[in-house]
Amino acid sequence: MDEFYRRIKDLKQALARQKLVIFVGAGVSRNSRLPTWGQMVQTFAERIGYPSIERLAMEEYIRIPQYYYCMDESEGHSDYYQLLRDLICVDAKSNILDELIVSLNPRHLVTTNYDKLLDQIADNYEVIREDRELLKGTANQYLIKMHGDIDQVEKLVFKEEDYLYYSETHRLMEVFLKSLLIDHVFLFVGYSLNDYNLKTFVSWIEYIAQEMRFKDGMHKNYFVSSSVHAEKDYLQKYYEGKGLEVINLYNLPKEVKDQTWRVPLEEDLGRRTYVVLELLK
Fold it and tell me: 185-189 and 221-225: which strand pairing?
């Protein structure tokens, strides 16, 4: 438990120095009853008759939407884009976990979600959806929607080719985020251990550390994990070797876990995430 409080202390210090960047994944939006990335992909899989698999492999998350896109013979792939619109409810409202994240006032907010939940409440943040908006940005704080949002459905990063060409189509955004790694602390919330996006971020962290030749002296970044396997020694060592420390939501100090009862969220993981982030205040 000492390690838990040390990690919270490190995050509080980064926040106080205005050096904390929070990445928000689909697990946060789930508290507003929006589908997770996996649930969206499963819908695409069902539409194309993809073999029923209880747990998809990481590469299938981006390949199945690509299969659908290739099979879609509608004009301009309108069926593909309409299905995305149908899955992302534009009327969804921000939840108290969104509100808590924004109230922490991190240096920047970054999300791979397509919804508008953070946009509704992050009044002090300039929204960045594509490179050209970053070029014209004038604010001190950004809400970076690195995979786009539902208002520009044709530009969403969802299928395989979107990910493969990301470094070309979002060159400035990627460079900007990588530059933050040098002296900012990243906190990932709402991602799973096997999330393709998380693995991409981890590879950036590792690359920057090696490129700058200070891997051993580089600051730590943090991941709030919802996996029951997060405490496995091999996973701990794997992520620690990549500069990422794991805060396991399934192994919280008793006094922290006991506070979850008062959080008005349906999802247990949402309640656990809330009480952890609340400690940063």
Answer: parallel
